[in-house]
């Protein structure tokens, strides 16, 4: 069943029916003020931090009720009927409905009884508030007397407190109205306020939820809308809302535009001045045009034309777009991660920088600095931090024995190396950055050295990395107090990180350091191969009794995905072992909806393994398809020269390919989700946790840098594709360090991997040079 389609020209996904299997959402905002908007207007807003600066409420665990949200009610004053352009919350059957999710904006359009309503939600590129730009059109040949109600429900800023301390929160809330602006603030705060505003003539308003909705009613039949007027309520306590009623007498075929602004002000005295330029429809339109231009420039650094339309759609638009959202919000705030408690993950954000590096390296560098500031002087790192307050910590994972995860710090090395390759900014490596104690500092390079040193200094009986609280797999909690559990995966990640350091030090001519890291790399590689090769694949870990996890000898969890892909990515496996373990992945872990994390899944809770065994078989880390891990397999296949296999893996998880079976898939077909229920689950194929997943960044990396092979290196742009053998080639445009490269790749012999010649502007070259910024060059790559 189809719920919508991709509108390639307008870079939008168009939803044509409101009853999607789950709310299909979009994000507005750039990483400061922002919010979530569903296809029926559900969702919420926050300012810089969804936990500490929540602006509006959302009721979780209510899917698919998907309420409340940013609602527009249109009421016919003659017959009293009312409806919403986005269908919710009144749920009146509309004569026409669609939702267009674009890049940074969402448009909801509905038609009912000769009236169309269209509302566009977005955050202007230069402001910390959101615009609701409403157009109401009388499509009839007679005039109509209408009313518009605009509504949003405020939240106390600390979103956890809003749920936990209702007694306090409800006594302190204050809501006021003055000349088109509703402010909402707690009694004890004098400067800040959330606000809702319009420049239109307001016939009545409400600041109090109970007054607008009425007792024992809901957003679907609010008293104010039913009776055709708000009650000008002043909220001295209880729950706050911003609600306006505006009278609309539309002549035949007349259209009226109204702008509403919802936001948060650090100083409420400045609200009027701050919003005044954006309250007119003309300026709102101009702001939307600027936003679209921003996104065109963001996605314009890379565009490809391959024989696969779905790949083009995702590499050019949707995957790039999702990468910016994960970069903004890590795993902090979605409809599944509630913006409470978790904060921004260090490992997550470090990986997220990889997905945006080609287009916004400066912003990536700024985030990397924040992550380095989360590092302890001994090299390990916080597990998460809160963007508004800068506080960090280890989070609320069930195992409390450790204050470190074995992998967080190692991802920093991958992020910094990717940044330097993209930007050529070697000076960054010398920049001094504080540690999390806020008093000691070290150069970026020293931070990275310490990251490797921490793992080197924390190895277990097999001389491989200790497991700590967990590794990438948050739920594999093996250390139950003995302190000897080990992670093979982290050891492989360490090898990858060490080899990136070796490459960098070689390039910089730092031979002594290079030697040191080569020795560290070799030592770990040998230890892994001696302890963890299982015959057909690599073991995953050792538990706190020294017993293997992910071995033929285990009844459950015989084989895990990550210790196969990272054996290749970490350059730990020789060719024979690499081929064998990747073949085992295909044989035991692959399925038509993606590769599962491990097999067979655990069937019962086991405290020696921890969180993974709390999940039923086939769910998430316990044998589910945890999509984040799939691109690692694709990259590994490409490193082995298997372009067809890699593309098969890539295609089978492309969300666009699930558009036709969205009823089963349930989640948005325009972004990757975090997990799909695996082959051992009765609901095999159902997706969950859309949007915030490392899948976005790593699929961007695997598709553009490995399948298509276009990647930055320290002194050149590499084009080294490994494509499906039947492709004749492809074209791409890549902006690298300000230089535009128009690339043509030819695959005359249908080999798919390996390059026989490269010419730039007609001259054969060994490497593609970095030219003067602002110039444009034509690159032709002929494959073997
Ligand atoms: O790696 C983690 C990530 O940090 C948060 N989501 C779950 C992943 C796998 O456990």
Structural notes for this entry:
- Residues 294-709 form the Glycosyl hydrolase 94 catalytic domain.
- InterPro entries: 6-hairpin_glycosidase_sf, 6hp_glycosidase-like_sf, Gal_mutarotase_sf_dom, GH65_N, GH94_catalytic, GH94_Enzymes, GH94N_ChBP, Glyco_hydrolase_94_b-supersand.
- It comes from Ruminiclostridium hungatei.
- Residues 11-280 form the Glycosyl hydrolase 94 supersandwich domain.
- The protein is of the alpha+beta class.
- Among the domains are: 4-296, Glycoside hydrolase, family 65, N-terminal domain (Beta-galactosidase, Chain A, domain 5), CATH 2.70.98; 330-445, no CATH class; 711-783, Maltose phosphorylase, domain 3, CATH 2.60.420.10.
- It is 29% helix and 24% strand.
- The chain contains 19 helices and 39 strands.
- The strands form 10 sheets. The chain has a 10-stranded antiparallel sheet. A 6-stranded mixed sheet has the order 19-35-36-39-37-38.
- A hairpin with a 2-residue loop joins strand 37 (755-760) and strand 38 (763-765).
- Helix 7 packs across helix 19, helix 9 runs antiparallel to helix 10 and helix 14 packs across helix 16 (630-639).
- The relative contact order is 0.08.
- 5-hydroxymethyl-3,4-dihydroxypiperidine (IFM) binds at residues 331, 345, 347-348, 472-475, 621.
- 5-hydroxymethyl-3,4-dihydroxypiperidine is lined by residues 331, 345, 347-348, 472-475, 621.
């Amino acid at each position: 069943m189809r719920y919508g389609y991709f509108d390639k020209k307008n870079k939008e996904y168009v939803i044509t029916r409101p009853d999607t299997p789950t709310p299909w959402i979009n994000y507005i905002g750039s990483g400061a003020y922002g919010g979530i908007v569903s296809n029926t207007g559900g969702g919420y807003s926050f300012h810089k931090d969804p936990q500490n600066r929540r602006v509006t409420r959302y009721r979780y665990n209510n899917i698919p009720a998907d309420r409340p949200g940013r609602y527009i009610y249109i009421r016919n004053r003659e017959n009293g009927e009312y409806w919403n352009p986005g269908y919710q919350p009144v749920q009146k059957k509309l004569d026409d409905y669609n939702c267009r999710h674009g890049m940074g904006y969402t448009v909801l359009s509905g038609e009912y009884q000769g009236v169309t309503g269209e509302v566009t939600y977005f955050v202007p590129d230069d402001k910390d508030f959101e615009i609701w730009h409403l157009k109401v059109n009388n499509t009839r040949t007679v005039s109509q007397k209408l009313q518009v109600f605009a509504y949003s429900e405020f939240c106390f800023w600390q979103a956890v407190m809003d749920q936990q301390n209702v007694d306090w929160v409800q006594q302190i809330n204050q809501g006021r109205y003055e000349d088109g602006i509703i402010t909402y603030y707690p009694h004890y705060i004098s400067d800040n306020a959330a606000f809702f505003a319009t420049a239109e003539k307001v016939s009545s308003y409400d600041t109090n939820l109970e007054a607008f909705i009425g007792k024992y009613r809901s957003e679907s039949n609010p008293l104010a809308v039913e009776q055709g007027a708000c009650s000008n309520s002043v909220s001295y306590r209880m729950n706050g809302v911003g609600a306006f009623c505006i009278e609309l007498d539309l002549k035949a075929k007349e259209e009226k535009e109204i702008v509403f602004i919802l936001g948060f002000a650090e100083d409420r005295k400045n609200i009027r001045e701050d919003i005044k330029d954006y309250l007119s429809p003309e300026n709102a339109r101009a702001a939307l045009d600027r936003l679209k231009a921003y996104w065109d420039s963001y996605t314009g650094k890379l565009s490809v034309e391959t024989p696969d339309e779905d790949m083009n759609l995702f590499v050019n638009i949707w995957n790039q777009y999702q990468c910016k959202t994960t970069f903004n919000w890590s795993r902090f705030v979605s409809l599944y991660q509630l913006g409470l408690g978790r904060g921004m993950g260090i490992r997550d954000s470090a990986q997220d920088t990889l997905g945006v590096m080609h287009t916004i390296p400066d912003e990536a560098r700024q985030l990397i600095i924040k992550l380095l500031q989360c590092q302890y002087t001994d090299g390990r790192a916080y597990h998460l931090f809160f963007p508004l307050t800068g506080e960090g910590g280890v989070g609320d994972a069930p195992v409390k024995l450790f204050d470190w995860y074995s992998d967080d710090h190692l991802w920093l090395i991958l992020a910094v190396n990717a940044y330097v390759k993209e930007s050529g900014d070697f000076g960054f490596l010398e920049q001094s950055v504080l540690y999390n104690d806020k008093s000691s500092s070290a150069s970026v390079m020293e931070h990275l050295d310490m990251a490797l040193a921490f793992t080197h200094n924390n190895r277990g009986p097999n001389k491989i990395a200790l497991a700590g609280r967990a590794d990438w797999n948050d739920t594999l909690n093996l250390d139950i107090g003995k302190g000897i559990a080990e992670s093979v995966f982290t050891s492989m990640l360490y090898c990858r990180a060490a080899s990136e350091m070796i490459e960098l030090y070689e390039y910089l001519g730092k031979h002594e350091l290079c030697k040191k890291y080569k020795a560290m790399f070799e030592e770990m590689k040998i230890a892994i191969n001696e302890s963890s090769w299982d015959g057909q694949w690599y073991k995953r870990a050792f538990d706190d009794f020294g017993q293997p996890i992910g071995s033929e000898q285990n009844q459950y969890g015989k084989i895990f995905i990550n210790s196969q892909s990272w054996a290749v990515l970490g350059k730990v496996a020789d060719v024979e072992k690499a081929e064998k373990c990747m073949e085992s992945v295909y044989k035991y872990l692959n399925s038509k909806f993606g590769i599962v994390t491990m097999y067979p899944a655990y069937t019962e809770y086991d405290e020696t393994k921890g969180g993974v065994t709390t999940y039923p078989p086939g769910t998430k880390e316990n044998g589910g398809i945890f999509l984040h891990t799939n691109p690692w397999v694709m990259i590994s296949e490409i490193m082995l020269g298997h372009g067809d296999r890699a593309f098969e893996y890539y295609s089978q998880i492309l969300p666009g390919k699930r558009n036709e079976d969205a009823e089963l898939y349930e989640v948005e077909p325009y972004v990757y989700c975090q997990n799909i229920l695996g082959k051992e689950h009765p609901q095999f194929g159902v997706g969950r946790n859309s949007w915030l997943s490392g899948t976005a960044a790593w699929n961007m990396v695997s598709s553009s840098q490995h399948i298509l092979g276009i990647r930055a290196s320290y002194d050149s742009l590499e084009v080294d594709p490994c494509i499906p053998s039947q492709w004749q080639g492809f074209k791409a445009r890549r902006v690298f360090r300000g230089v535009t490269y128009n690339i043509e790749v030819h695959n005359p012999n249908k080999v798919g991997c390996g390059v026989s010649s490269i010419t730039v502007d007609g001259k054969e070259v060994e490497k593609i040079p970095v030219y003067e910024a602002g110039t444009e060059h034509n690159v032709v790559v002929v494959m073997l």
